[in-house]
Amino acid sequence: MAPNEGGFEKFAPWLSTAVFAYALLVIANLAWSGNIVLVRAIHEDIPPIGLMFWRCLFTVLILIPAFVPRWRAQLPLLMAHWRLIAGLGVLQFVGGQALLYIALQTTTAVNAGLLNATEPALTALVAWVLLVERINRWQSLGIGLTLIGVAVIVLKGDLGTLVGLEFVAGDLIVQVAMLCWATYTVLFRRLPAGINPFVLLFAMSIAAWLFLVPFYVVEMVWFDRYVAANLETGVVIVYLIFFGTLIGVGFSNMAIARIGPSRASSFTNLIPVFTAVLGVVILDEQFLGHHLAGTIAVFAGVAIVNRMRHR
Questions:
Q1: 290 found inside a domain
Q2: Is 108 a domain residue?
Q3: Which domain holds residue 181?
Q4: How many domains does the chain have?
Q5: For residue 138, what is the enclosing H or E element?
Q6: Mean pLDDT per 10-residue segment, the chain (311 residues)
Q7: 41 phi/psi in degrees, rounded to 5
């Protein structure tokens, strides 16, 4: 069973409704789409690992006031499930987001957003691998269609790209990030009831921050890339913490706790739409024919997977 909300529902029953969960997911996915566009816009100025390192650290500091009043009640749960919580933190912030930041060094925001649409199909695949759910022939077909759509986007609709190895490495890294997201979504259901969502976010951020330390050192020493202490960096980190972590991850966790990972994962289909619009309008990126063809295949595959999962 997933974590609860600390008893707020008894004062406002509408907080526990599915409609409220859907609203949380729409806002969360819009926030994540803004994240993708912002990180792509500043990818030459702020290194990806350093950006996530400082984002996690300041998230921990901001959430201390939410943790301190609850530490006596929450600590036993955190200690009993620390491996799972630490794993979720690494999957979410390192695998799901730091890898996405790395991918955005080379791929476009439009590509990254469209490839996010594979997450629901990957969630079904991970659930099958972890023996949580079975995959029938229709779901296999849906996953296959999704992979075809990914191939069309990554290869830009040209098989010659595969022969010449001209595809963008960032597109493949996005898929690894989506696999981490899918694994996170499946494992999240193993959390016990009673963990406050912001205490959970606090603990996950600590785990991710510690995990990022050696990679941050490598980024500075080996790649000679540093996070400059200036106003631009501060504004970006504040934006990512508020919209990416507190709104994006926090709202998503609360929604998953209400309606479950299967229904929640289907809302990631909003990310390609939001990101494509923001990428074209803000970054002046192009939405081309292979983007449309790949997106249609991905959405068709996801629709089949989710329809059969709900049945």
A1: no
A2: yes
A3: 8-116+168-271
A4: 1
A5: helix 137-154
A6: 47 59 86 90 93 95 92 91 96 94 88 77 80 67 71 61 56 90 88 87 96 96 93 92 88 80 70 79 78 74 61 52
A7: -65, -35
